[in-house]
Amino acid sequence: MADTVSSLAARMHDLLVTLLTEGPGAVGDAGLHDIVTRAAALGPDGAWLAAGGHASLGELACLRGQTDLAVLHFDAAVAAGYNDCVALHVDPLRPLHADPRFRALYQRMRITAADLDELFWLHQEMRRMAQDAQDAAVDNIGRLDRGVSLLPQAPLPTREPHTPGVLMTRIDLAAVQTALRRAAVKLDFERSAGNTSLELIDGSWDDVRALRDARDADAWESRRRRAAEDRAFVERPGAGAALVPCPPLGSIAYPG
Question: For residue 254, which of 57, 13, 65, 93 has the smallest C-alpha distance?
Answer without folding.
Answer: 93
